[in-house]
Amino acid sequence: MRIGDLDVVPLSDGTYRMAQDFYVGLDFAAHPEMLADDGRVPIPIGCFLVRGAGRIVLVDAGVGRIQAGAWGHGGQLPAGLASAGVAPADIDTVVCTHLHIDHIGWLVDDGKPYFPNATVRYGSGDWAPFVESPDERDRGRHIMETLQDAGRLEPIDADMTAICPGITARHTPGHTPGHYGLVLSSGAERAYVLGDAVECPLQLSEPEFHALSDVDPSLAARTRETLWRELEGSPTVMTGAHFPGLAFGRVVTTSGRRWFAPID
Q1: Is the model's pLDDT at 264 over the cut of 90?
Q2: Per-residue CA distances from 128 to 124, 142, 147 (Å)
Q3: Residue 140 — φ and ψ, nearest 5°?
Q4: Residue 252 and residue 236 in contact, taking contact as beta carbons nearer than 8 Å
Q5: How far apart are CA 8 and CA 223, in angstroms?
Q6: Cα(185)–Cα(113) distance, rounded to whole angstroms?
Q7: In the prediction, which pLDDT does 244 show?
Q8: pLDDT for 109 beyond 90
Q9: Contact 121, 169 (CB under 8 A)
Q10: What distances in angstroms separate CA 205 from CA 6, 164, 173, 261, one per listed residue?
C-alpha cells in the first residue's frame, strides 16, 4: 500500500482461532463465512510497517515468541520484517495501539528489547490497567517494565499527537482506555490504521456486536460510529489489526447501510 510517499506493509504475526463467543451478539448462522471448518473464528494478528521521510515505524508488535496451541499460533513477525528488508535494529519507533499482549509481544524477547534502537509509544491510559494492576508474573507487565527500565518508553497523553512526519496518533478509546489509532497522511492521501478500535469490518453493517475484549463496549461503539461518520464516502482508506487479510478498504454507503469495500 502506498499513501503518498509512505510505504505501508501489512505483516501478520500469526493467527488466533477464537471461540464464537468472542464476538458478542453476532449471529454466526447468518455469517458462516466467518468460521473455519472447526467452527472457530480465524483472526490474523496484524502489524504494519510504515516507511517514509527517513523513518521506519512499526505499528503494533504481535504476540511474540510463544508456543502454538489451541488458541492459534504466533511468531511470524521477524520473518515478515526480513521479507520486507528490515532488521529489528532498523526500526526507530514502535507505536502500540494499546497494551493487549497480541500488540506488544515482540517488544521484549529473551529478556531484552527486541527492537534495540526503537522508542516505544503507547497510550498512557493503558498503563494502570495493564501494567500496574496485573500480577508481577504477568507477561505484558514484564514487557513494559523491562522497556521502562531500559528507557525505551514514551507515553502518548493527548489526542492527535504527532509521532513523526506523516503519522499522527488519534485517541480512539473503548477497546482500552488508552487506545490510539494512527492517521497516515502524505500529500492528498490518507489512511487509518485503527488497531482494535474496529475489530471486524462487519461492524460497519452490523454495529450491534462487539469483541469480548472491549473494556468499555459502549464507548467502543461510540468511537466506531464517530469514525464511520468521518470516513463514509471519503477517499480515505482504513484497516484494523484483525481484519481478514489485513486488507485496506473504504467505507461506502449503499441502500442506507455502510459497508467495508476492500481495495486492491
Answers
A1: no
A2: 8, 14, 16
A3: -65, -40
A4: no
A5: 24
A6: 29
A7: 96
A8: yes
A9: yes
A10: 30, 34, 21, 11
Residue corresponding to grid cell 528489547:
113
Give the rounded percent of residues in the chain with a pLDDT score beyond 70: 100
List the one residue out of 9, 3, 35 whose CA is nearest residue 22.
Answer: 35
Q: Return the SS3 of 34.
A: helix
CB 9 within 8 A of CB 204: no
Cell 464516502, located at residue: 233
Positive or negative: CA dihedral 25, 29, 32, 36: positive
C-beta of residue 240 within 8 angstroms of C-beta of residue 46:
yes
Tell me the C-alpha distance between 173 and 185, whole Å: 21
Within its chain, how far is the Cα of 218 from the centroid?
20
Q: Enumerate residues 6+ apart whose C-beta is below 8 A from 242.
A: 16, 43, 44, 45, 46, 196, 199, 200
| Residue burial 189-214, b: 16+ Cβ < 10 Å; e: rest | ebbbbbbbbbbbbbbbebeebbbebb
Q: Is the pLDDT of residue 31 over 90?
A: yes
- How many Cβ atoms sit within 10 Å of the Cβ of residue 59? 29
Q: How far apart are CA 262 and CA 22, in angstroms?
A: 24
C-alpha cell, 264: 486492491
pTM: 0.97
